[in-house]
Design goal:
The protein is of the alpha/beta class and about 425 residues long. Helices cover about 45% and strands about 10% of the residues. α1 packs across α2 and α11 runs antiparallel to α14. The longest helix has about 35 residues.
Length: about 425
């Protein structure tokens, strides 16, 4: 069901899910979506991102002063310039230090702890240089955009949403049901890096925040990978959802006599429960609430009742395995190309990482695709994201967005 023409949203929450190296796909989607929202007369864009979604949200927010087409072009350039060396140090070179910290923790040496398997020092430098933080500050101060970054507190495991906006409006109260805390902040690289600190793989990040909010934070995807609830709480008139898993569960039924799941399969299922199932559940809940409100609105003419309906637009791949299959395809093609010594080393490391994470199950590329920060995969992901987003708007005027009030089946796009 599309939204009625008389209720065009003016304040749109753009919810961008966690994605790791799949963030190039999200950037591709946003490069089409954001100009379309501006063309449709949206006054305020509220970016709410988790992990790689926080990175994308921050990049687009920092470029929001530019014309939409130029904003998209420069945002994609950031992703196209990223290599695996910009994200984490070579595991081979970092192994002695990692092994020493692991041994120190095992032996309970005071002050020695292993907080992550990979050295993300390069990512910290990349975050500082890839975003114009002064320009971001100005864009927010001028009311061009609102930015929210989702993290997980290392102290109590609650979701903490750091909100940066120009208005003097107070942040929403804590939501103890989910549980979610909302904190006013001036978003810095620390907040974005903390949101992107994938558990076990990346170490937590310390955020220097006033009062009790200073401390170590982890990936926001641990509890809230697709932050629809914060978008609603922050007062969005409509919500655009950008994610790397389908909004409608399209998982195939397991064949009879399927072998018992191995460790790889179990990890992928845990990822689904954390990253995917909550998004599907939240969108279904929003659909049901919209249907209930719409039914009630037919019996009343009050303006308040019409405003309660929150239309949404998910732009996602058609199947859960779409990006995993793409990662495997690109990875396999690289084995036949001549490369320099340094690149061959990183390719070997990625091959070993892929072998360790992928296994032989039907979803063997899922884990690997989150860490595959390779220019060819990122470029292919960008183009796939742009293709899927353009398919959503295909045939519509540039000032129209196909908002939904109930969850529909995804488009059949390849």
């Amino acid at each position: 069901m599309k939204q009625s023409p008389g209720a065009l949203p003016r304040r749109v929450g753009v919810v961008v899910a966690g994605a790791g190296a799949r963030g190039g796909y999200e950037a591709g989607v946003l490069s089409v979506l954001v100009p379309r929202l501006r063309g449709a007369g949206v006054d305020t864009v509220q970016f709410i991102g988790t992990s790689a979604g926080a990175i994308n949200s921050t990049i687009f927010a920092a470029l929001s002063h530019l014309p939409p087409a130029e904003q998209a072009q420069q945002a994609l350039r950031v992703w196209r310039d990223i290599t695996v060396s910009d994200v984490f140090r070579s595991p081979t070179l970092a192994f002695p230090g990692t092994a020493a910290r692991a041994a120190g923790q095992l032996l309970r040496i005071p002050g020695v702890r292993l907080t992550g398997l990979l050295d993300t020092g390069p990512l910290h430098r990349t975050a500082e240089s890839a975003v114009d933080w002064i320009r971001l500050r100005r864009n927010i101060a001028e009311g061009r955009v609102t930015l929210a970054v989702v993290t997980t507190s290392g102290a109590d495991n609650r979701t903490v949403v750091f909100i940066d906006r120009a208005s003097a409006e107070s942040v929403p109260p804590a939501d103890d049901e989910r549980p979610i805390d909302y904190v006013a902040a001036e978003i810095t690289a620390e907040h974005v890096l903390a949101s992107s600190a994938m558990p076990i793989v990346f170490p937590p990040v310390h955020i220097h925040q006033p009062d009790r909010w200073e401390g170590s934070y982890l990936d926001g995807g641990i509890r809230l990978n697709t932050p629809l609830k914060p978008a609603i709480t922050m007062g969005a008139d409509a919500i655009a959802v950008v994610a790397t898993h389908p909004a409608v569960d399209t998982a195939a039924t397991a064949p009879a006599n399927n072998p018992p799941p191995d460790v790889d399969d179990v990890v992928v299922r845990l990822m689904d429960a954390t990253l995917v199932d909550r998004m599907i559940e939240d969108l279904r809940t929003l659909s049901k609430v919209n249907a209930l409100v719409g039914s009630t609105a037919r019996d009343t003419t009050t303006e308040q009742s019409r405003k309660v309906v929150i239309p949404f637009l998910p732009i996602t791949p058609p199947a859960r395995a779409t990006l995993a299959d793409l990662a495997e395809e690109v990875f396999a093609s690289q084995c036949h190309k001549p490369r320099g010594i340094a690149h061959r080393l990183r390719l070997t490391e990625l091959r070993m990482l892929g072998h360790a994470l992928s296994g032989d199950g039907p979803r063997r590329g899922d884990l690997f695709s989150y860490l595959y920060f390779d220019p060819e995969f990122i470029e292919a992901s960008i183009e796939l994201g742009r293709c899927h987003a353009q398919a959503v708007f295909d045939g519509l005027p540039t000032n129209e967005v196909p908002w939904q009030t109930e969850l529909l089946q995804p488009l059949s796009v390849s």
